[in-house]
Structures are given as C-alpha cells and as structure tokens.
Amino acid sequence: MEKNVKQAKNKEENKKKPSYSAKDIHVLEGLEPVHKRPGMYIGSTGVDGLHHLVWEVINNSIDEAMAGYATHIEVKLLHNKSVSVSDNGRGIPVEKHAKTKKSALETVMTTLHAGGKFGGESYKVAGGLHGVGVSVVNALSKKLRAEVCRDGNRYVQEYKKGRPTSKVVKGGTCTHNGTTIIFEPDDNVFSTTELSIEKIVTYLRQQAYLTKGVRIEIFDERGDETVSYGFYFNGGLASYLNYLTGNANRVQEHVFYVRKEAEGIEVEVAFVYTDDVESEEMAFANNIYTPDGGMHLTGFRSALTRTLNDFARKEGLLKGSDDNLTGEDVREGLVAAISIKLREPQFEGQTKARLGNPEARSAVETIVNEALTEFIERYASDAKKIIQKNLLAAKARKAAKAAKETVLRKGVLEGLSLPGKLADCSSRKPEESELFIVEGDSAGGSAKGGRDKRTQAILPLRGKILNVEKSRIDKILLNKEIRSLVIALGTAIAESFDIEKIRYHKIIIMTDADVDGAHIRTLLLTLFYRYFPQVIAHGYLYIAQPPLYRIQKGKQIYYAYNEREREQMTKRLGDKLTFQRYKGLGEMNPDQLWETTMNHERRTLRRVGVEDAAEADHIFDVLMGEEVGPRKDFIQAHAMAVKNLDV
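^ thats the sequence. predicted structure below, dont judge the formating
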C-alpha cells in the first residue's frame, strides 16, 4: 500500500516538472531569431539599437563605394518615421538564386548570412561582413520597401516585419543603377523610434572622411522645412584630423599622414599633437568605427611608442631603461585617426566594437614604424617638439604618481570612514541603493528630509567642484568635495578604481534648474567621464529631472517640468492659476522634493550614456577652455536660444 502511494506521488511530481526532450528543442527559421532576440543582433532595443539599423543600411551603400561602384549616397528622414537610403551602385541582383529558388533580392532581404561578401570578388573589403545587416533591418521594421535599378529596369519588393508581401515586381525604367531601401522601424520592438539628426550627421560626416571622393547627403524632411547637409572630402584622414582638432593649438607644424598596403591590408593613419592633456584616437576597420579599438589600434600604439622612444634615446634625452616613455606619455595631447581595409575582418560581437585580426596589428605596426621614421628624419623640428611634449607628460606622470602615493599614505582614500556630510542609506545591497549628489546644504536638507532612508543616500556638495578637464590626479585628490564623492562611491579612482566595490547602482545628479545648477551638473559629468567611465558604461549614472514650476488652482497642485508643460497646463487648467518658479531645490519642502523628484513611482530619471557625457565634456571644454575663439562662436550661435537668464 505504501509502495503504491509513493509511486503515485512520484508520478504526480514528475507531471509538475517541465519536460526536456526532443520536442522542447526549438529551431528558429528565417528571421525568427531576430524577432525573438533583437538585442543579439543590434546590441539593444533602445536609441543605440535604433540607429544601428540606419548604420547597417548605410554601410551597404558605403561598401559599394569602397568597391569603386558608388559615388553618391543619399539619406532621407521622412515624415512617417521612415528612413530612405539610396546609392548609385550596382543594385542588388534580382535574378533567381540557385540555392533558395527565390529572387536574389528576396534572399538577401530575408535570410541571415546571405550576401555578396562571403566569397568571390564582388567585395574585396566590406563593413557588413557578418551578412546579417539588411535582413535584420527588415526583420525589425514594420514595413520595408526595396527598389533596385539594374540594366535600365526598376524592380520593387515590399515586406512587412521581414516577410515579403509580394514577389519582386518589374516596373518602370531607370537611367542609372543603384539601390534604395525605405524602412520604418517597428515601434513594438524599440523603446523609441525618434531618430537623432545629430547622430546621423556625425556618422555620415565620418563616413565621408573615410571614403574619399564620395558625395553623401542627408535630408531631414520631418519638420515644416527640410534641413539638409552634404559632405564630400578628398583629403581622407588628413581632412578628418583638421576637423577633430578644430581650433586647438598644435604642437607640430606638419601632420603625420601615411597610406600604404601591407599583407593585403590597406592602412591609412594620420595624427597630430596638441597642447592639451587629453588624447583622442579614432579607429576604423572597413569604415566601421571600433570604439573599443582592437588589433589595428594596438599596432599603431606600439609603433608610436617604440619609434618615439628610439628617437628620444638617439637624441640623448633618455638614458636608463626606467626612463622609457610609456604609452600614456606619448598619447597625451595626441589626436589620431587609424583606418584599415582588409578582406575578412573579425569583429568581436555583432555590433563590431573591437577588431580581432592579428594580421591587422602587424600591418599597421610595420607601416607606421617606417613612415614615422621617415617623418622624423624629414621634419626634425616637429619631431623634437613632439618629444618635448612627451617628456613633459612623463615628468608630470611621475610627479602625479609621487603625489598620489603621498596622499594615499596619509589615508585620504584608504581606511577612512564615510564623509560626515553623507546621509547614507541603511541598505547594504548596491543593486537597490541610490546616491543623490545634491547642490548645497539647503537642497541637501530637503533631500534628507524627504528621502526613503532605507535605499536613498544623500551627499550634498558645497559650491562648484574642481574643473578636472585640465587637472591631474594629485590635484583632484586634494579637492575636498571630490574626495568625499570618491569615498562615498567606494570604488577608489584612476588605476585603483574597482567597479565591483561600488556602493550604489544608481548615482543620481540632482542640481538646481538654473545656470549654476547646469554648470555643476556639467562639471560632475566631466568628472565621471574622465575618471569613472565604467560607472557610465554600467548604466549607473543618472540625472534627476526636478520640476521647474509649481502650479496651483484652488487646492489642487500641479508640477511642470519645462516651459512646454507649463504652457500646456495653462491652456488646460484655464484661469486663476498661481505659479511658483523653482530656482533651487532648496525652495522645495521635503514632501514636494520627494513627490516630484525622488519618489520611485513618479519621478523621471535620465540615464547618462557615454555620448551624453562626451557631449557635456566637449561643451565644457569649449566654454571653459583656454581658447577664446570656440567660446565666442558657441555664444554667438546659441545666444538667441537662451531663456530664463538670471541677471
């Protein structure tokens, strides 16, 4: 009896367990994998993923240009949130494909890893080598239309969410060959379908510099009036370098530039030194920007460091082996662009952030070594100025290291208790803990009074923190406000930084909605961008959005977060309204600050991305840098847009 009961019980428990047999192995066909896991193919379904769709289509046109077939690319942002990309290349083939028995056009548009870049001589180099580009765009679009002009005929096929709604139709004639792709991103996939004209213009400008002799145009037709930009550069990376350095003071008179081929890889490199302490290195493989660098960037850095060390030693400026210039020394003030074109690039990840080809390193290293040696011999005066810049950087590095060690020995960061002004939260779980960095003791008092003490910590900062743009680590560590922030974060700073030790997974900058508040926010963004980039990369940095107005009608209270909301509320609520414009967070009582800005259920937080911080850093450099010209240009360009100027 007991045995039967036990067997019945085991049988019942087995029923409850999920099965795992052959029927549970799902095979996704066609574009199903993209629908199921879009982030695997485009990185995310946020703003970056949305723009990645545009890059994929543009890259196909750029590939035609690199192959020598296209000379003109046109991008249009249309009223209905669609994007049109056209080129005058060869046009996608339309005849029946031997393997799929479908049109080659339909095969390319609906099949992963199908294209002309996996063999043969159609493309010697290409950016979209993974072969998933345009098919992924098709899969993640509400609808897509492909128009192909070949041999005087026009061919059209339309798709809905990656599936063709008709066969390839031949209709009309063409005076030239080419391809046009018109697609509307699927708003059920993406968190936003609002494309940034600034992002796209920056990308297209970059592509025009990297592809000599190709005319690239963009037309933004979404507004009442069409806004257009056009790019055409014959100087290649040398022209790009002029754009990157802008009005900066150059250390050298002549720009280093080389374009050669080695090991079947075309290498183009340009660099120049400025009197800044920062560096900027832009690396590309087959016109694809690789933000995480890779073997081509490693080869460039290796050649630069070794060749400059050899020259400095030859000039008697370096003696002992310990005196060698480091990579950090030779990169201070460096602005460089490295572009290679190779047959089979090995990108790490579908979003192609890093290049993994070992042969790319040796090709770049060999070419830069030889060309830089010749440059040094030809322009000895420039070479000596560069070395003097490097030696100053080395001297500053050693001084900063010594000062930092002294600071650390005094216990500035290690072993110290949390700063007294920090009102910490009771939770010790970083994933649920938040740090609000607030401006001044008054706002700090309101925030402390209104917060959730279990998960929300408050750190008030007094005044404006140090401008870290032109400061080295030793000076930064002596600044009391920054030191308090570093200790509160728990991560240490510079080479001692450890993201695993961070005490909060939400670090929220909460400043006043006035000019001073914007200045302090920009200073903090610059600090994080320069010295805590991993915090931004992990998505831990946020900006709070406090209301600008308190609107009262009778006993009802409303909040407007910007001028547009105030105008809309005024129209909606009618007469007899009382307005209070908040100049500072300290003007709010704790309950108001909690309800509008700190309450998890009602607040609005803006997560800071690397591009946001980089833009803040750029603007701060313009407004607070040593050069008067860029600041004057910026003020003249934006003067008419200023509102609510405090005088």
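The first helix runs from residue 2 to 16.
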